[in-house]
Amino acid sequence: MKMAKDKDKKTRKPNKNTFNKNTAKENRKAVSKCEGTANSSAQNRPNVVIDQPPRVMDQKEEKALLKTAKAMYKEKQYNQCLEICKTILNCNAKCYFGFLLSGLCYIFLNEYTEAKKCLKAAVEIQPDDVSGWKGLEMYYDTFNFNDIFYVEVLRKLIQVEKDNRKERTLKLFKSLDNLGKTEEALSELFAYLGDVNDESEVVNSYEIMLKKDLVSFDAQLKYAEFCQKHFLTKNALIEGLALRQRNDKDLEFSIQLFRLMGHAYIDVMSDEMDIDTSIIDKCEEYLFDNFDNMTVRRNDVGFVFMALIESLREINDFRYDKAIEILNVIFRGVENNDINMIRFGERSIYSHLPALCDYIPYRFEIGIFLTEAYLLKHDYSGAQEVAEEVVELNLGLNTRPGYYILRLHLAEIYRELQLNYEKAKEICNQILSQNNLSLSERIKQRAKTCLALLHAQDGEAASGLELLIQDESCYEVHCARAQCYLLMGKLQEASAEATAATELNHDDDAQAHYLMGETLRLIGEQPNEALTELLQACKLNAYSAPAFFSLGQLLWLTEGPTKKALECFKWAVHLRPYDRVIVRALSDRYASLGMNDENMDLLERSADYRQFEPWTWALREFGMYQLLEANNLTKAVKAFQRLCPSPAEVTEDGDLVSLDLLAESYYRQGNSPTASRIWKQYCKFKPDLYRLMRLGDALQKSRRFEEALETYSCIDEEHWAPLYGTGHTYVYKARVAFRSWCAAIQPLERAFQLKPSALLVEKTLADAQFAMAVYKQPNPILWASKAWQHYLKCWSRIGRYPAVICGQLARSMGDVATYLCNTPDNDLDDQLRKVGRPALKALRRATRLEPDDISNWIAFGVAAARLRKPRLAQHCFIKAILLDKENPQGWTNLGVLYLEHKNYDLAYECFHTAQNMSATYGHSWYGMGLLSEIVKQPDKTLDIFKESCHLTLQRSIIYNYGLRFCEDLVECIKEHGHADCINMKELLFLVEILPPVICLFYSNPMTLNNLGILLEFQGDHAGAYKAYNE
């Protein structure tokens, strides 16, 4: 051990004395290529045969020796460096730098076998240190060797070092190619090209690395596919077109070439690339000519891809409907059925279509082409739906120009449809702010023009003009400026811009002609020139709605309301059913010509098309027409419901007008409860007199009388209308409950004083006064006479009122005349002359005005019968029967007339016929009961009266039934000494219904005595005592 220690000292001493510190420092600076920083140890033993170390070297000594070896290597003293490294490796067989420096020295000493062993050992010890891999690269470059390990070395260096990647990729490409691994060589090449952003760099790299080293059709095809994949579309098309010349094309190569050309063509069309037209034409010619040959290999080429190419062929041939059909199928997907058959193409090719619900390839491109197909068809709604769906799908393609072109389409659609202006402006601003994308100047100009026109259409024409004022003059800019000036009303400036656009209109575009014609039309000085320009615009573009609209306006102004002008308006509406200006203009023309049906059809279709605020006028006009003129209340309700879908949620700032019209529609429809609820909501915010009146009317028709009276009392001002409403409520309430007639008189009289010309007020007052007479109030003759005088005054003004009011008034006059003529205190002949004749004249006039109204004929007949005109009465009843033979009312009244004149057989036939027609019509039973009583059939009489009373609670029927019941009751007591044979259920029924009838209509000693008897049997002794006492 001592000898080994002395030997170690001797070994270190000459090394220490040979180099001083300055020499070591200079040597350390000189070493560059082989120095490294890694300190990790290799996991496996190096593949170099090393003698077993006789001793262990400490780290300080090892570092000193390595420093010396590096200095020797720098001084190109390779043998001395190898000796030192051998010494180190004898002591430490895992010394990374020992193997690294040894391998480098062996390279310079042309010992390639030992060099490779040492360098491989170095990278096995520290595989992450780049110096070892560089040494191996130097080894292979020096000795020009090539094996699979060289490929591994180059891939490692490409992975860890980005410098010199191009040169190493070329080395790797050559190595793999020489080893016969052509596919791997091309993959490595295209992996490098995919990371290159500069197109010229890619082309140069291809020229340098590919064409000079591997010239073949396969390489050319792979390069073209690479270019297409990385959107170097022009290069892909050029290479693909060149490959068409290959003569020995097999089927697989043909499929690959067809897919390449198809993909490139799809990219060109979707991203709207600026490529020479001749190249695009050749591409289309190749694709469409070879399409039918490829359909037999549809599944090999790709079903969706082939369908997409076919749709583009249909678009190219102007068959937009067919293209839309194909694109919709592959865009929406299909159900996952066992067999999916889709018919495509002119040859009716059937193909098994895989389920496309989970993943649809090319969906972004399909969406773009489907949108464009709809636009070419001028179906903006369909285009909007598809474009919004594709944008919402968020397919992660926002780095492609096509994504922003699609969004630009969407903004232009919004501008055309006149909606979502803010969103459209946002889209245009985003496109204009994109500086990193290769968007063409044409696309950016389109975005700016669209943004300017959006501002102009949104009422900010000056802002839109500012966007275009600095732009370089071109045709599109002049047109946009002219549109802005037209919207601003600056006709001279618009004329100048339209003139400039016309001068640049080398393609004879319709827009320039339209703008010039519209400007001249608005100026109004040159109508013939305006007509010429507009006709030319319509001729060039039959889908230009503004041009046809302007032409229609000009023709209407110069030639009048001709059929030609109207057709222009109609075609403009057909093209733009969403343009409220055009629709309203046509609606006004229809209205001026009295074409109400056409107008309402137009408004209904227009209202259905759009449901946002600017279209409320269409729904409102349609609803008002149906409400006020057509009397189609169902359509009116539907129209106003669309304007107010939730009436209870309408606020003070909401659409109160439509809310009021909705309530009015319900009210006229007979749905008073719903109308009252809606008017209550309206009156929360705007409680004006008219709506409070309508609310009160709806409440009283809903039989909510107390709420109606409370509503009328909310009207502070003294106006005839609320007073009339209050009185009318009491009248309506009295008709239901036999009360409130007295309460109705005062407000109605006050309303009549305030508004003596209101016929309905005076008629309602007369109704109340006549009711006072009928219900046995004090001075009944006086009340009836007052009512008659009011009815006469109303009849003198009846001429301008509807026939319905005339009939109501005539029937009321007949009732009063009958009452006055049958009063014992009056002179009958005098009353017939003063009252009867005017009443009969009024009824005759009512029947003439409404000859098909049965109620007028029956009222006329009843009045004639009571006023001693039996033949006239018979004529009236027979006329009513002829109008409706199934109506029991006419037969019953005719039977009563025969009964009064003792023609019992005919009376029986009439009553029997009425009973057969309606078993529930109580008056026919009552007539039969009167007949039974006259012909002395007492057993049947009471049963018939009972049946009629259960069917109809009419006062005369109740009275007669009660009278006969009491008579039978008295007879039963006289005969048996008790009333056990009496039906107590019927007794209780009579006690319930008879008292109000007796008190109001038949208050005399006999009836009161009968009432007392009934109450006494019921056990109500207090009530019976009161009746007997009265």
TrEMBL record:
Gene Ontology biological-process entries: RNA catabolic process
Q: Which GO terms describe its cellular component?
A: Ski complex
InterPro entries linked to this entry: Ski3/TTC37, TPR-like_helical_dom_sf, TPR_rpt
Region Disordered: which residues? 1-48
- Do you know which SUPFAM superfamilies this protein is assigned to? TPR-like
Among its keywords, does the record have Repeat?
Answer: yes
Instruction: Indicate, by first and last residue, each region the UniProt record lists as having compositional bias (Polar residues).
Output: 37-46
Assigned keywords, A-Z: Repeat, TPR repeat
TPR repeat ranges are 96-129, 888-921
The name this protein carries in UniProt is Tetratricopeptide repeat protein 37
